[in-house]
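User: I've been trying to design a sequence by hand for this structure and keep getting stuck. Would you show me what you'd pick, starting by listing the structure so we're on the same page?

Assistant: Good idea, let's start from the same input. This is the structure you sent:
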C-alpha cells in the first residue's frame, strides 16, 4: 500500500500576522506529521485594495507570507479572491481555484496523495473540488462552525455537498456528528476523533508559585477563562455574575486569558463592562499566553469557566483538567463529552445566568478530587488520537487504491 502523505488544508492556521489562529489544528496535525509526511496549505482571502481597509481596521485579514517553515513543516499561504458581501458565497470555489496549481505541484512533484481539510465550509468544500479535479482522496474534520453555517440554506447545501464528496469525515465530538447526520450527512462515513492534551506541557505547578508569578496576592478563590476575546466565548456572561459571586467570596479574582481572534475582538467591550461594574480590582486581563506558559495561570486558579454559546470540542477543558482544575461550562456542542462526569465539573444550560451563577458558587465551595481530574486528562493524551487518525488515513488510501488500481 502507498503510504499516506497529507496536504493539510485550512484557512485557519497560525502565521506571523496571526500567531494565535488555528493553534488547535496545528497541535493535532503536526503530531500526525511525526508519523506521516505532511505539508500545510492555508489559503488566504484577498481582494484588490484590501490593504487600505487595514488603515482603519488594523486586524482585518492580517498579511501572511507566501511560505514559511513551522516546526520543520512547510506551510504555504496561497491567496484566493474573496469579495465582500453576498459574493462571499463563492469563497469555496475561489479557494479551490487559488490553491489548484500549488496542490497539483505537491501531488505530481512531491507525491502528496491525500487532502485533509479542516471545517466543512468553505475549506472542506474547496478541498473536495480539488480532490475531484486532481483525483485525490479528501478527508474533512468537523470542528464546530458547521452549526452556525447550517442555519443558512446556501451554506448548508455546500456543507452537505462537501461531506457527500469526502472520502472520510472526522468529527471532534459525537454531538457535532449527530448534528450533521440530522442535516442529511452519511453517518457511516463519519468517525468521532476528539482532541487530546499534552500532559508534559500541561501539568500542575504549585499554586503559591503560580500566583506569585502572576503577582496575585491573598488567599481568595480564582476563576479563569482561556479563549479568544469574542462574544461566543462568554467572558461577558461571567463578568456579569461577578458582583453576585463577590458577595459570597469578596476576595475572588477572575483571570481573563486571550486576545483578539479571527472571529473578532471584544477586548474594549469587556474592559468597559468591568469598569462599569467597578470590578477593576477583581478582573485581570492577562492577554494571550503561549501554550507552554499556560500552565502557570491555570495552576494559579481554582476553577475553569467557559460560558460559551458554541463549541465543537473545547480542548482547553482538558488542558485545564491536566492542571487540576474542575470545569463549569454550558451544555452546547461537545462540552458534555469532555466534562463527562460530575467529578470533573458542572455543565449548565446555555443562556440562563441563574444556573451558571449557582454552579460557580457550588464549584468554588466543593471539595474536588484534583488528582482524579488530572488522571482523566492524562487518559486523553494525544497518543491514542494520533494512532486513530493515522490508521484512518491509511484506510482511505487503501480503499482508493482498491477502487482505482
Amino acid at each position: 500500500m502507498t503510504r499516506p502523505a497529507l496536504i493539510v488544508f485550512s484557512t485557519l492556521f497560525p502565521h506571523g500576522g496571526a500567531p494565535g489562529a488555528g493553534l488547535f489544528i496545528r497541535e493535532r496535525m503536526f503530531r500526525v506529521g511525526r508519523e506521516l509526511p505532511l505539508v500545510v496549505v492555508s489559503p488566504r482571502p484577498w481582494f484588490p485594495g484590501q490593504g487600505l481597509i487595514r488603515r482603519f481596521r488594523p486586524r482585518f485579514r492580517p498579511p501572511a507570507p507566501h511560505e514559511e517553515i513551522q516546526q520543520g513543516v512547510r506551510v504555504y499561504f496561497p491567496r484566493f479572491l474573496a469579495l465582500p458581501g453576498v459574493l462571499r458565497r463563492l469563497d469555496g470555489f475561489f479557494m479551490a481555484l487559488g490553491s489548484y496549481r500549488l496542490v497539483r505541484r505537491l501531488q505530481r512533484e512531491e507525491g502528496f496523495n491525500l487532502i485533509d481539510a479542516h471545517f466543512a465550509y468553505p475549506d472542506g468544500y474547496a478541498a473536495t473540488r480539488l480532490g475531484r479535479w486532481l483525483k485525490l482522496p479528501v478527508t474533512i474534520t468537523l470542528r464546530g462552525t458547521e452549526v452556525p453555517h447550517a442555519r443558512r440554506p446556501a451554506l448548508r447545501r455546500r456543507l452537505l455537498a462537501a461531506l457527500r464528496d469526502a472520502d472520510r469525515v472526522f468529527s471532534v465530538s459525537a454531538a457535532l456528528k449527530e448534528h450533521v447526520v440530522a442535516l442529511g450527512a452519511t453517518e457511516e462515513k463519519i468517525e468521532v476523533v476528539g482532541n487530546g492534551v499534552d500532559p508534559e506541557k500541561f501539568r500542575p505547578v504549585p499554586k503559591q508559585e503560580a500566583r506569585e508569578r502572576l503577582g496575585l496576592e491573598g488567599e481568595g478563590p480564582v476563576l479563569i477563562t482561556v479563549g479568544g476575546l469574542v462574544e461566543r466565548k462568554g467572558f461577558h456572561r461571567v463578568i456579569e455574575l461577578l458582583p453576585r459571586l463577590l458577595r459570597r467570596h469578596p476576595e475572588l479574582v477572575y483571570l481573563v486569558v486571550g486576545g483578539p481572534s479571527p472571529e473578532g475582538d471584544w477586548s474594549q467591550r469587556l474592559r468597559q463592562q468591568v469598569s462599569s461594574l467597578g470590578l477593576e480590582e477583581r478582573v485581570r486581563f492577562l492577554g494571550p499566553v503561549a501554550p507552554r506558559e499556560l500552565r502557570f495561570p491555570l495552576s494559579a486558579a481554582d476553577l475553569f469557566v467557559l460560558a460559551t454559546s458554541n463549541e465543537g470540542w473545547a480542548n482547553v477543558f482538558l488542558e485545564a483538567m491536566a492542571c487540576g482544575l474542575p470545569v463549569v461550562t454550558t451544555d452546547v456542542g461537545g462540552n458534555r463529552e469532555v466534562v463527562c462526569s460530575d467529578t470533573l465539573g458542572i455543565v449548565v444550560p446555555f443562556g440562563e445566568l441563574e444556573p451558571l451563577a449557582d454552579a460557580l458558587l457550588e464549584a468554588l465551595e466543593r471539595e474536588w478530587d484534583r488528582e482524579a481530574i488530572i488522571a482523566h486528562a492524562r487518559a486523553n493524551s494525544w497518543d491514542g488520537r494520533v494512532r486513530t487518525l493515522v490508521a484512518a488515513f491509511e484506510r482511505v488510501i487503501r480503499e482508493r487504491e482498491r477502487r482505482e488500481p
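That's my pick for every position. To get oriented when you compare it with your attempt: The first strand starts at residue 6 and ends at 9. The chain has two domains: 6-196+382-403, 207-378.
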